[in-house]
Structures are given as C-alpha cells and as structure tokens.
Design a protein that fits this description.
Blueprint (H helix, E strand, L loop, with lengths): L1 E3 L5 E3 L5 E6 L2 E6 L10 E5 L5 E13 L4 E12 L5 E3 L5 E4 L2 E6 L2 E7 L9 E6 L4 E6 L4 E7 L2 E8 L5 E6 L5 E5 L4 E4 L5 E5 L10 E6 L5 E5 L3 E5 L5 E6 L13
Parallel strand pairs: 8-12
Antiparallel strand pairs: 1-2, 2-3, 3-4, 5-6, 6-7, 9-10, 10-11, 12-13, 13-14, 14-15, 16-17, 17-18, 18-19, 20-21, 21-22, 22-23
C-alpha cells in the first residue's frame, strides 16, 4: 500500500522487511532488522497528527527526520503480521492484525472484532470503516460481514455473499460499495443494502480472480487481478478497457492493493 504523510512524503509498504520513501525526486529504502515473514511485512500508518508510524510484527518505529533513519520506540500489544486492505471514512485508522481487527484512539489500539478461534489466521481479508461506526469486513470463506459499533459493543448485523472469499472493497461517489472476490466475480452493494452481481463466474471477465478494486473520481471502477491484468469499468459495470503488464511473463503475477 501507499500512504502520504503531512509533509507530502510517500511511503510504500512491503511484503518483506523494508519500506520505500519517495520525497520529491529522491527514493530511499529503509530496512528493518527483524526476520522477514512470508505473508507479512511492514505496515505504514499515518497518525492523527499526520506523521508516519511503522509497525513490523509488534514493534513500533518512527522516522527520525534529523538523521534520516528509522527509530524503534516501543513494542505494541498487537501483532501487525498481515497486510490486508483497509479503508476508513474517519480520522481513526483501522487495521487487521493477528489477533483480529483493531481501531486506534489516539495512541491506543483497541481490539473490536477478535479473530475467531476456530478459523485460520488469515480469516479476515479486508475492512471498510464507515463514518457511522459501521464496518464492512471481508473474510476468507464466510463472505462479507456487516458490523455496527454500539455502546462500545460490536454487533454483527448482516452477512452478504456467504461462502465467498472477499478480496477487497471500495466505495464510489454515490456511496455504493464495490466488492471483488476470488473466483466468484465482482459485486456492487448499493447504499440501500441490496447487492447486485456485476460479473459472476459464469460470465466472461478479463480475469478469474480479482484481488483489488478502486472507484476513482471520474466514476470509473478499476480492478486488478491475476496475470497482471487491470480492467476499467464504467459506473454500470461495463468493461471499458483492459490492460496487461506486457513485461510480466509469470502467469501468477497479481495486481493487489
């Protein structure tokens, strides 16, 4: 993922033990000393004051602007092992960690949805946090879960697309939630709560597995999938254009968040 801090610096997280900083025309790579995990990496978080914070496993780092290096500050309560797509309409960041789903209040992380003990560690796949303290949560095999935070208690209100792996979500300018899945197509959930199949597995979509989806400011929907394929859809779900990264020769190259 990519995050921009208050100084306009761009921070690129990784699936290894490093982050990349782009500041103007200068590109810098920062390595972290801990062991690299196959499915994990460095998480970049923009705090409430606009400054960047870096989580690698449970260790917390900040950027030392004087010496231009990473500075270890503490060990946190939760393990930022996974990198999963999370979006929020609020100033509070939301993250998927090994223990479940957390939100941050200032300098405090709070676990709001625990990782089910009966499920694999990768159970939660994506989160979209709405401004009314409502959460759309994607799962590995249980579809899309809709939660609401009421009186400090998170309640499950609905379950959409059961038995489906949800990979990512994005909202368009009308408030519709676009959802991409593994092998079961692309869906649009209207702001009124009714889901519509845009492309299902029986139809011909440019890629079988869609890993990322994004609604831009021009009312277009972008999807990224396997084999380096990127597709652009209009607001009704019609494919306008499809691109493939020509230099990518591997069949398992994925476009992800």
């Amino acid at each position: 993922g990519v995050e921009e801090d208050k100084m306009g610096r761009l921070w690129f997280s990784s699936s290894g033990n490093y982050v990349i900083l782009i500041e103007g025309e200068k590109v810098t790579k920062f390595h972290f000393p801990e062991k690299t995990y196959g499915a994990g990496g460095v998480n970049v978080i923009i705090r409430g004051d606009g400054s960047p914070e870096f989580r690698y496993s449970s260790r917390v780092y900040v950027y030392d602007t004087v010496h231009h290096k990473m500075k270890y500050t503490s060990t946190g309560k939760y393990n930022y092992y996974f990198q999963r797509p999370t979006s929020t309409e609020t100033a509070i960041y939301t993250k998927i960690v090994r223990e479940g789903i957390i939100i941050n209040y200032g300098d405090k992380d709070e676990l709001i949805i625990p990782q089910p003990k009966t499920e694999d560690l990768a159970y939660f796949t994506a989160v979209y946090h709405e401004d009314k303290n409502q959460f759309w949560v994607g799962t590995m095999k249980s579809g899309l879960l809709f939660y609401a935070l009421q009186n400090d208690t998170v309640r499950l209100l609905n379950n959409y697309l059961p038995e489906t792996q949800i990979n990512s979500m994005s909202k368009d300018h009308e408030g519709n939630l676009w959802i991409c899945t593994k092998e079961k197509g692309v869906y649009m959930l209207s702001e009124f709560g009714r889901h519509t199949i845009v492309y299902e597995e029986s139809k011909k979509f440019p890629t079988k597995n869609v890993y990322t989806i994004f609604a831009d400011s021009e009312e277009r929907i972008w999807t990224g999938g396997e084999r380096g394929i990127v597709s652009c859809l209009d607001s009704t779900g019609i494919v306008i254009e499809t691109y493939r990264l020509e230099e990518i020769k591997s069949n398992d190259y994925r476009i992800t968040d």
